[in-house]
Model the fold of this input.
Amino acid sequence: MKALPGKRTIEIIFWLVPVVAFFLLPGYLVLGSQILIVAIFALSLDLILGYAGIVSLGHAAFFGLGAYTAGILAVKGWGEPLSGLLAGGAMAALAGFIVSFLVVRGEDLARLMVTLGIGLLLFEAANRAAFITGGVDGLSGVAMWKLLGVFPFDIGGKTAYVYSLAVLVIVFIALRRLVASPFGLSLTGIRENKQRMPSIGAPVQRRLVAAYTIGALVAGIAGALLAQTTQFVGLDSLGFNRSAELMIMLVLGGTGRLYGAIIGTVVFMVAQDYLSGINPVYWQFWLGLLMVMFVFFARGGILGALEKLKR
Amino acid sequence: MLGVLFDGIAYGSLLFLVSLGLSVTMGLMNFVNLAHGAFAMAGGFVCVVAMTRFGVPFLAALPLAFVITAAIGAVLERLLYRRLYGAAHLDQVLFSIGLTFMSIAAATYFFGSSQQPMRLPAFLRGQVSVGGVDFGVYRLFLVATVVVLTALLGVLIARTRFGAQVRASVDNAQAAKGLGINVDRVFSVAFALGSGLAGLGGALGIEVLGLDASFPLKFIVYFLLVVVVGGAGTIKGPLVAALLLGVLDVAGKYYVPQVGAFVIYAAMVVLLIAFPAGLFGRRR
Done:
């Protein structure tokens, strides 16, 4: 692919948008930080689905695991945000590492079922273990210390927004380096042709295990971030709907592109905020219709459509 | 103990009835149809509407549920499903989740989100006592219906010309086409049949599973489980898997209620690891 003129400029403008939004839309910072967090989550799915080609229906398991880890740490008296974030990520990565061995060995259908099953298993576990997770009522009383010892989490969500944006930028840069590295290219190769990759010396299983673990790590970080910034963890952070919606966001923006994950999340969440405010039932209907339409008419998502226009 | 076992079998035979159609779509067309639960829900609503608004008796409402759901299935297969047979699994998943969401929203719009009321006719209510063990009459009826239907299906698949075409198409669609079998038509008929059975299962299941707008999402896991554990594309696989899961689920909920659905999910993950292609999976 040849470098498009002005690509650098577009990127700079892209990243200026959240900064400008911080100053111009002070009333939307809570929604804004939610979008930033889900964008991190979408990036993690993009790595395993868009790049490595692993279809997962239970990615929320890792998000929820990170959220509960960070949340429970804070409830038990350790409210330091950054270490909580890392703990959430580490816990999810550990789970992802273990699960990955089950996921990489099967075909698409078995993968779907294993990821779905593990998601449901964790959901049930959190539901039943109400004495630590709060069960259906959710985990409340997540008391966070000041960020870096200086910035308290305020009601208006300023700290939460900047914190989330910073984490998003770091994750984005890390993932961009990762997918452009030989490791990332080999993932794309595995997605495109699993049979041929071993013959050019790529250990397919090991690469997929690594990708899945990293995906889980990033998802856990996103979950931990949500727990810390909203100071609450609900059962829905583990639910099937979250996994399904995430997949839609990713497909909406365009899979296999890091910017696709972010753009899809923004469009989806703004639309959801607007439309479900009108009527939540209609929202679900339009969402379903959108998914069907996308499968038939716009497989590359928003970015794919833009690319086609340019040609 | 015997009562729990029986309830489990009744529950399992219901799961089998609904899942059979899914087994067909997955085995025949290699299509991951997550919207299968929506067909079962449609059958349930047909039954409820026929009974409460038009006064159709329960036994007459059941075939109605079958026919109407089969018709819906046939139309959707023609218009939408057919285009995605060769598509990536991700596309099929997205498409069918989209369809599921639409069906839930539509059901909520028309019927609200509460549980649908359902009154069984008098002769299907109550209990009979055999050798000191109480059996629910309705559950006996359920098991008997499923046994009869399974026998009929067995004959259909093993003895008729259509059955032979289905088996040929499953084994090797290319070769079947070459022999002059209209594989597209076989797929359409099989899909409609599967949808109809799901609708019938949904109608029969109102008493056992309940019926509300969230039905397609709530139970799709069970249906998928039956097919994936049993192995797609057969009758025997889903049957064994459905009975196994039905008994496990009922027993789990009865003996260790605090663990709840955990039993069934754990069983599924373990079974999938032990038998990646299903208990009676066919090698591809």
Chain B has a mean pLDDT of 84. Strands of chain B lie at 127-130, 133-136. Residues 2-111+139-274 of chain B form a domain with the ABC transporter involved in vitamin B12 uptake, BtuC fold (CATH 1.10.3470).
